[in-house]
Amino acid sequence: MTEQAPTLLDVAREAGVSAATASRALNGSTRTVSAEKLNLVLQAAARLGYAPNLSAQATARGSTKTVALIVHDIADPYFSSIAAGIVDGAEAAGLTVTMAVTGRSPDRELEIVSILRGHRPHAIVLAGSRIGDDQEALADELSAYRAAGGRVAVVSQPGLPYGTVTIDNRRGADELADALVAHGYRRFAILRGPDVLHTSRDRAEGFTAGLARAGLEPVETVEAEFTEDGGHAAMSGLLDRGRGEVELVFAVNDVMAIGAMRALRDAGLVPGRDLAIAGFDDIPAAVDVDPALTTVAVPMRKMGRRAIELALAETEEPELVRLPTSVVLRGSTPRR
Amino acid sequence: MTEQAPTLLDVAREAGVSAATASRALNGSTRTVSAEKLNLVLQAAARLGYAPNLSAQATARGSTKTVALIVHDIADPYFSSIAAGIVDGAEAAGLTVTMAVTGRSPDRELEIVSILRGHRPHAIVLAGSRIGDDQEALADELSAYRAAGGRVAVVSQPGLPYGTVTIDNRRGADELADALVAHGYRRFAILRGPDVLHTSRDRAEGFTAGLARAGLEPVETVEAEFTEDGGHAAMSGLLDRGRGEVELVFAVNDVMAIGAMRALRDAGLVPGRDLAIAGFDDIPAAVDVDPALTTVAVPMRKMGRRAIELALAETEEPELVRLPTSVVLRGSTPRR
DNA sequence: GTGAAAGCGCTAACAT
DNA sequence: ATGTTAGCGCTTTCAC
After folding, report:
1. Residues in chain A within 8 Å Cβ distance of B149
2. Domain span(s) for CATH 3.40.50.2300 in chain B
3. What range(s) does the HTH lacI-type domain occupy (chains A, B) (predicted)?
4. Which of residues 263-292 of B touch A (CB under 8 A)?
5. Cβ distance A89 to A305 under 8 Å?
6. Residue ranges of B 198-257 with Cβ closer than 8 A to chain A
7. pLDDT per residue over B152-184, tens digit each?
8. What digits encode the pLDDT tens for the residues A138-153?
């Protein structure tokens, strides 16, 4: 049967007023319409089940009430926590969140930004570290959006000329190394992600720098995918080759660390006792594994919230917000 | 400085053609415009960094290329897995996903559906079991949307007159009970969620039914929040009161089960050895905990994909798809 | 194949 | 306070 959705004109007609009045009553600044007609319109709208056509509203006004969020993988707890913060913040500002997923493909990301731009969102938020340094095309796309009055915020990856909320990955990893050395560890392996990921690189380097201050260096470095399976595979490989003298494995994120713990157990070893493990992020699952995972706590949800604030703020200068991290020592790295 | 974003007219002018031709070249059915002008337009568009205004397109066409997704909590692995499937499916169909989060509040959910309806999405997908039976207002809102030609699909909760993809919660729990009895367990406690959640109720009842066939009944039933903290609190409570003769605790979802395991460890007990635990869903973390969690596998990602297909399918009759579950026995329920 | 013109549902001057 | 009238950027008849 599919009748059309009722339009503003239907409501106006039903209420016996002009479209303009109906518009003012329903969406405008309320104050300019008499209580009487206001009621008439409201009731007519309710009777008809009217919902304003946001697209039409957007074309007419030239702006939308949405913020577009770009993440790499929504099922990844790191991103979904950030997303949760963003949704919170957006909701507080009366904005709807639209979301797109890149699957970590730079091409796809570029395409997505282009499509999203078409939605003319109030703001675009990029979450998660970009891939590689070759971001010219992306930067162009974003600056076109920016030039047209759009707002951009970036979570996690500094270096883009927009409001950015991030953490100090180097420092966090450095402090972790410190704490671990203080716990008596001396022989470390690093499980890092693909080198093109800034996050991975910074954390690995920070950790190495921390060790260096104690006159140490990593016994071994293994590269793997930035996922749980990546961590599992890398740890399995390490064990196959013989882990030698390694006492502790630092994985550059918790997801990888948890994958590594699983590999350890699969090999009949006990994480923490036979080999210590540390991660980075403090995702919710970090306290669910046994032993609980030593890690660097990243305030993911707060980062999301802050990103929205940055995007919405009317500043000329791109602001860089660095949220503090903290080392959290847990059972996966017992004192030696 | 904020120049305006280039419009179709700008492109047309730049290419020396009419707006109509530009429109046809950029978005229409390609075939009706000469190769020559097509190129002209394409180049002009590229030069200007043109991105079509999707809102204007939507008002003109009367339809959008978006699907709206409503979830309770995006940080919950259950929902984010479903969301991932939906994003996959939508992407395959060339649709953008917009997302809103209810925080499990029925009022908020109603409000969201109303707002979303204003976006005139191609389809609305509701993910996660609804709260309570009092869904009249929600049903009204949805049927207004439906009447205007919108498509609706529901994940997880049967009972709404729309295409639905779900699992047989009763049966899954029933089979789990069977398997656990076969493993030698006799004394069970059930950790259930709020009774208003169908999912929780069905799983608890199915489990009880399974036990009944073996001439057993649950020793105890504890109600808690449907979250990890809820599971933790409930288990702590159970331990405080003395768990008596209970051999195995069945939590109606993995998140609660994992919370319960954590409570167990907090109390100095070893999950699996001192007290067996089983959950439901098979979220990714189920294999990360130690011992790995016995559970009922739910194909969450596939459910999301299937939901999009249902929503997009042109069927009159609301279809009900029940995806199969399977019992997965792991270390948290060793054979007795 | 291409352009002119009307219209999508709404908002925002501009009148009154 | 309310109605009239232009648009917003795009698509889509309808002629040529």
Report:
1. 2, 4-5
2. 55-166+302-322, 169-297
3. 6-61
4. 265, 271, 284-285, 287-290
5. yes
6. 228
7. 999 988 888 899 999 999 999 999 999 999 999
8. 888 888 898 888 999 9
